[in-house]
Amino acid sequence: MPESHNFQASHLHSIVRRLFVAAGTPLHIAQDVAEILVNANLAGHDSHGVLRIPGYLQGIESGGLNPSAEPLIKKETDTTLIVNGGSCLGHFAARQAMKWTIAKAKKANLCGLTLASTGHIGRLGEYVEAATREGCIGIVTTGGGCGQAGAVVPFGGAKGGLGTNPIAVGVPTGDDSPFIIDYATSMVAEGKIQVARSKGTDLPEGSILDKHGNPSVKTADFYDGGSILPFGTHKGYALSLLVCALGGLSGNFNIEKGSMGGYFMQAINIEAYTPLEEYQRGVRAFLDGMKRTPPAPGFDEVLVPGDFEHRARTQRLVHGIDLPDTIYRQISQCAEKLNVSMDDDATEEVDRQFYKT
């Protein structure tokens, strides 16, 4: 088993925030980015957590990301928003965008938003969870496609032309375990491949092709010109195209190249349809009914979307977050370059209070 390093969430949060501040990010932006990245690890989705830090810092250093930029509303109606990120850090932009979306939905009952010109926004479940806390159903999609390039092959194709194009939906349940679906329309998210590579493990069969179009389970084959398969064959492929079409509402498409994509968010105010408290009780009863289904051979229990994240967070808040040695060393190199301490005694009290550790 490869070596790993354990961090309490408060310790990791403090390191991440200070890394981004040292790279020129204003404190309030760095705080949001750090919280969202650590939240991904706490939710058990290490693919969208702190392993992404070196790439984001490289984006800042190269000028591809503007760490001090803030999203701006370019156009709006009572129920729509068009937002431009100005090449800002995507996590900060997406959190603010969902806040705006929820605020309009609470007034007009529905709101749809498009977001353009921003960096990678991380785990989509983060933002639909925010909607559930405000009594809304949240929807977020992100991705793109082009006939000339992409990580994911169209169904029946031999060459990548799509992104992993995830979709997330959150529904409130009245407790701290909302119904959350959040998955790529590909067999595996690219971040999951990064996690497997960091741990030295193979991928599940049927996930990727090598550069010659042959099935493979080796992460090295993907990074050597390979591609990912869509999940559910033609069904996942069709959903991936839908994600591109929703993103295209931002105007981010090129007719000559045949490309389209972007970020789309929607919030639906539940009170516009039915009393929130009763609805949440109904959703919880419905989901609990599913969980009472007798498990099939080979299964211990029936779960519903959101259970995994809730259990992971509960466990990791107590026992900490394990980082593979490869990821630890990459973050350590960033910290050394930016003169940021990774020692536990550098953890700030505000972070201990936030995570109650």
Structural commentary:
The chain has 357 residues and is α+β, with helices and mostly antiparallel strands. It has two domains: 97 residues, Malate/L-lactate/L-sulpholactate dehydrogenase, four-helix barrel (Hypothetical Oxidoreductase Yiak, Chain: A, domain 1), CATH 1.10.1530.10; 180 residues, Malate/L-lactate/L-sulpholactate dehydrogenase, NADPH binding domain (Ribosomal Protein S8, Chain: A, domain 1). Helix content is 41%, strand content 20%. The protein has twelve helices and 13 strands. The strands form three sheets. Strands 2, 3, 4, 5, 6, 7, 11 and 12 form an eight-stranded mixed β-sheet that branches. Strands 9-8-10 form a three-stranded antiparallel β-sheet. Strands 1-13 form a two-stranded antiparallel sheet. The model has no long low-confidence stretch (mean pLDDT 95).
By CATH, the superfamily of the largest domain comes out as: Malate/L-lactate/L-sulpholactate dehydrogenase, NADPH binding domain
Reported for the largest beta sheet, the result is: 8 strands, mixed
Distance between the termini: 28 Å
Q: Structural class of the secondary structure composition?
A: alpha+beta
Name the helix and strand elements from N-terminus to C-terminus, one letter apiece. Answer: EHHHEEHEHEEEHEEHEHEEHHEHH
Given as residue ranges, the uncertain stretches (5+ residues, pLDDT < 50) are none
Radius of gyration: 20 Å
Strand tally: 13
- Fraction of residues in β-strands: 15-25%
Count of DSSP helices? Answer: 12
Q: What is the CATH topology descriptor of the largest domain?
A: Ribosomal Protein S8, Chain: A, domain 1
CATH class of the largest domain: Alpha Beta
Can you give the helix content as a percent range? 40-55%
Query: What is the molecular shape?
Result: globular
CATH architecture term of the largest domain: 2-Layer Sandwich
Summed over residues and divided by their number, the pLDDT gives a mean of 95
Tally of structural domains? 2
